[in-house]
């Protein structure tokens, strides 16, 4: 593939060379050392061009831009030579700090990996690196130096290479890796032409006779150079070429700290691993450049030791020196990448990045309270340390004494970057699944070998879609340590629990509101105009991961695809059912055939019960993701041709940096399946987008109302790494669809409408006027609810009702609608309508009733949260009196109850 990539780039460059020849005439043939580079399609004339020549080139449609050639810098903050005997030690402090010896103890020392640097060269004869230089295709000096073996013009490059692969005095992170080098900086500055020449040579190296061999390219390239101009982008085409060839680019972040927004380039690029510097006490080095980038992304990506680093002194073959700078931090990360690749050959950039940022040390870091870019220093990633300080240890917070429950062991997944299907043909999809299954079987063998026979092993879960292991029951600390020491294990973490995304999943019966030619949302997106072209979804299979679907509901009973059409990972039921109504409502909106509720009524549907109630355990969601990739029937027979075309996911987490579902999304994408996710309901502040909706691999959807305004609850972007989300918005307020109460029930699913509807219906039978919804107060109420404060009043001051599932012990209390009825039902019988007081003599005994029923109340707002210790509903009222005059109800309580909940 790399040969093909290089050929394509070269062909393009040859056309550019012809353009120059046509425009400038004989100059090319007689040029002293004009340079053309295919890696970024650039032309560097050997001497000055005339103004007329520049104008001729600029007028060509083939020329994107003409600019002054850039000059990059090498800027270590400090450099001190030392006698070798002074610094002799088992391991240097930085090597120990990132836990390299722990990786070495597992046999991970970089063997089989080739690293490179673009720098001032390397003193090849130095004792620390002389034995692991790869001589063939191992050296290039574009500045014209005659040396056929590596040399160093200034010392910086020898120091950085020593930190990556040095084999003496404990200076190197990956001492078994091989190294090659290119001189991009013949002094403390680095000319753009030389850097470009090095970038191109490392993409597809040539030997001393100029013979190319792209198989000799390195696996990872260290770049301890850059510019203080954080907006320079000239190097990005070269980074893109490296990435396309599977090469990992690591860059120093710059030494322009300690103020915010000082990150340099190319370290600022979203396509490279940008590295900041820490000192021996884990404090951020004063010189380490901070983010955000000019376009407000978080940088650096990670931090590593960069102060008083001992490595090679280029003046002798056994000299060593101290240097400080992010130039010294980046090689620690490059070495760590080499260690990872030696254990995970062929790993993609995404896998390397996930491993680096997932195995970090946060506990010892000291926030400096700068909060650069508005990102708190106490959260990670931030614009000081990035994700935190690099560490080889895997989720050390799990390694506590005793037992740990509900963990997930993440094994190294299959590299899907090269497996994206050009089409979703049966053979291609089956081949993908076979590759995933083979990798999962290896993981199971690792678990069997490491843990042996376990009492609960019969109910362990292994998923091939993301190569994860969910142990049944608990693991001991020693078992977790043993697994963490396996080179096949990428990370061990606590299992995630997501939740379905509507502000509440239980809805009310919508009476006559359901009867319509088309519901407002269906009309708003102009579905009927598409139906007129005979495009109703026929021939397409849709799926959802949700609370299930009521199969017998009139709106969806006729278009269920019964073969390979239902999976219940936990209970094992064989026909679709719905645990609380949310999934039926969602599927009705997608493919409903009655009352104009469905956008694609001609489509077939299948479903997986990933959320047995309003919460969705990680293992259950993963089981659904895998089943939808290649469905099985009731007997367990697989048929990958039965996979759906598109999967709806109206669930998620408020943790907008969580990436555990990414491997499953990648597998869907590789199989040609379209993933759609809700964006979250944590608005209306910026940066509230949840996960997996934040993923760049999915279509994330925000919510609008019938006036095309953005719903107040709809989560806003940007993502944690400053990408735009949602991808688009669609109707999401007061949506009428199928509901699971009966086969003919239709419902709204919307917090605002549910509580407002219930409250006003109760007030109406008492001849009390309606209240409106207070949007501003609702935001404050939801913020209080999201904090999960437990059973306590708070948030905005005022007259407040609180209900919890734990308190009442009834299923209805889980519902938003149930909360309004609870407050009314429990206290209405205590209300004395003659005296307008509570019959017990204590106002508090009827306080919920009087708040909700006071005629003086003009508006209300509520917040709801599903917390670890129960479901809670808080409602504020503006503004009741303690002893309101409440007329008697016009109907019985039984009649009122029947009209409230379907």
What do you see in this structure?
It is a single chain. The model is unreliable at 392-403, 418-424, 501-513 and 806-817 (pLDDT under 50). This protein is of the alpha/beta class. It has 23 helices and 40 strands. Helix 6 runs parallel beside helix 9, helix 7 packs parallel to helix 8 (236-244) and helix 21 crosses helix 22 (847-853). It starts with a helix and ends with a helix. The strands form 12 sheets. Strands 6-7-5-9-10-11-12 form a 7-stranded parallel β-sheet, with helices on both faces. Strands 25-26-24-28-30-31-32 form a 7-stranded parallel β-sheet, with helices on both faces. 26% of the residues lie in helices and 18% in strands. The protein has 5 domains: 2-66, no CATH class; 72-390, Peptidase S8/S53 domain (Rossmann fold), CATH 3.40.50.200; 402-487; 502-738, Peptidase S8/S53 domain (Rossmann fold); 751-900, CAP (Pathogenesis-related Protein p14a, 3-Layer(aba) Sandwich), CATH 3.40.33. The longest helix is centred in the middle third of the chain and has 26 residues, at 426-451. One of its GO terms (biological process) is proteolysis. Keywords: Hydrolase, Protease, Serine protease. Its EC number is 3.4.21.62. This is subtilisin.
């Amino acid at each position: 593939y790399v040969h093909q990539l290089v050929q394509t780039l070269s062909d393009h460059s040859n056309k550019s060379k012809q353009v120059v020849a046509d425009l400038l005439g004989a100059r090319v043939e007689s040029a002293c050392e004009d340079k053309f580079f295919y890696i970024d399609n650039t032309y560097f004339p050997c001497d000055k061009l005339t103004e007329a020549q520049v104008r001729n080139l600029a007028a060509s449609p083939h020329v994107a831009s003409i600019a002054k050639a850039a000059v990059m810098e090498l800027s270590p903050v400090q450099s001190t030579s030392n006698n070798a005997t002074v610094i002799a030690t088992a391991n240097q402090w930085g090597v120990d700090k990132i836990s390299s010896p722990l990786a070495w103890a597992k046999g991970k020392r970089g063997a089989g990996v080739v690293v490179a640097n673009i720098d001032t060269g390397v003193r090849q004869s130095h004792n620390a690196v002389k034995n692991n230089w790869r001589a063939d295709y191992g050296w290039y000096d574009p500045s014209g130096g005659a040396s056929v073996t590596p040399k160093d013009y200034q010392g910086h490059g020898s120091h950085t290479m020593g930190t990556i692969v040095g084999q003496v005095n404990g200076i190197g992170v990956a001492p078994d890796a091989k190294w090659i080098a290119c001189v991009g900086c013949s002094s403390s500055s680095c000319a753009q032409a030389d850097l470009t020449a090095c970038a191109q040579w490392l993409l597809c190296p040539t030997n001393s006779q100029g013979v190319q061999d792209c198989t000799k390219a390195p696996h990872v390239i260290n770049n301890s150079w850059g510019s203080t101009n954080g907006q320079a982008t000239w190097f990005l085409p070269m980074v893109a070429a490296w990435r396309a060839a599977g090469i990992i680019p690591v860059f120093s972040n710059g030494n322009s700290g300690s103020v915010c927004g000082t990150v340099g380039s190319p370290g600022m690029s979203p396509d490279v691993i940008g590295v900041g510097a820490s000192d021996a006490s884990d404090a951020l080095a004063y010189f380490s450049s901070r983010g955000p980038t000019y376009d407000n992304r978080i940088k650096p990506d990670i931090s590593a030791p960069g102060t008083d680093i001992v490595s090679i002194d280029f003046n002798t073959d056994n000299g060593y020196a101290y240097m400080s700078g992010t130039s010294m931090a980046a090689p620690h990360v490059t070495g760590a990448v080499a260690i990872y690749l030696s254990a995970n050959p062929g790993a993609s950039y995404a896998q390397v990045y996930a491993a680096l940022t997932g195995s970090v040390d946060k506990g010892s870091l000291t926030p400096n309270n700068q909060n650069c870019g508005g990102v708190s220093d106490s959260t990670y990633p931030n614009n000081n340390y990035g994700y935190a300080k690099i560490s080889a240890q895997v989720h050390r917070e799990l390694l506590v004494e005793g037992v740990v429950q509900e963990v997930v062991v993440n094994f190294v997944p299959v590299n899907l970057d090269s497996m994206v299907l050009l089409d979703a043909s049966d053979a291609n999809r089956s081949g993908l699944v076979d590759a995933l299954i083979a990798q999962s079987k290896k993981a199971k063998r690792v678990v069997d070998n490491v843990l042996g026979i376990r009492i609960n092993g019969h109910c362990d879960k292994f998923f091939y879609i993301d190569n994860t292991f969910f142990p049944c029951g608990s693991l001991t600390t020693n078992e977790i340590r043993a697994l963490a020491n396996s080179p096949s294990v990428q990370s061990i973490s606590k299992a995630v629990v997501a939740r379905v995304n509507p502000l509440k999943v239980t809805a009310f019966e919508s009476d006559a509101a359901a009867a319509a030619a088309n519901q407002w949302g269906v009309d708003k997106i102009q579905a009927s105009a598409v139906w007129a072209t005979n495009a109703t979804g026929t021939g397409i299979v849709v799926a959802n991961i949700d609370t299930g679907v009521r199969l017998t509901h009139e709106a969806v009973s006729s278009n269920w695809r019964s073969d390979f059409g239902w999976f219940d990972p936990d209970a094992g039921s064989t026909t679709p059912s719905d645990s609380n109504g949310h999934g039926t409502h969602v599927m009705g909106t997608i493919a409903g055939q009655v009352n104009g509720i469905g956008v694609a009524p001609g489509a077939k549907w299948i479903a997986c019960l990933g959320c047995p109630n309003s919460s969705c355990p990680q293992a259950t969601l993963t089981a659904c993701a895998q089943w939808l990739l290649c469905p099985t029937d009731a007997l367990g027979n697989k048929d990958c041709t039965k996979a759906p075309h598109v999967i709806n996911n109206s669930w998620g987490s408020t943790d907008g940096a969580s990436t555990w579902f990414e491997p499953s999304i990648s597998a869907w994408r590789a199989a040609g399946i379209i993933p759609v996710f809700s964006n979250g309901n944590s608005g209306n502040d910026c940066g509230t987008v949840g996960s997996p909706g934040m993923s760049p691999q999915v279509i994330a959807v925000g919510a609008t109302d019938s006036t095309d305004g953005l719903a107040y609850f709809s989560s806003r972007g940007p993502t944690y790494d400053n990408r735009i989300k949602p991808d688009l918005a669609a109707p999401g307020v007061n949506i009428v669809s199928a509901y699971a109460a009966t086969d003919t029930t239709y419902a709204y699913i919307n917090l605002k409408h549910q509580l407002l509807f219930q409250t006003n219906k109760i007030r109406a039978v008492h001849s009390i006027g309606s209240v409106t919804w207070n949007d501003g107060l609702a935001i404050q109420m939801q913020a209080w609810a999201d904090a999960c404060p437990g059973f306590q009043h708070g948030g905005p001051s005022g007259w407040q009702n609180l209900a919890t599932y734990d308190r009442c012990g009834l299923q209805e209390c889980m519902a938003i609608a149930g909360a309004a009825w609870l407050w009314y039902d429990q206290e209405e019988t205590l209300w004395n309508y003659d005296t307008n007081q509570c019959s017990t003599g204590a106002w508090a005994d009827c306080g919920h009733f009087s708040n909700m029923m006071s005629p003086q109340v003009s508006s209300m707002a509520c917040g709801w949260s599903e917390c670890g210790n129960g479901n809670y509903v808080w409602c504020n009222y503006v503004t009741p009196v303690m002893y309101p005059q409440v007329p008697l109800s016009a109907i019985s309580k039984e009649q009122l109850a029947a009209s409230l909940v379907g």
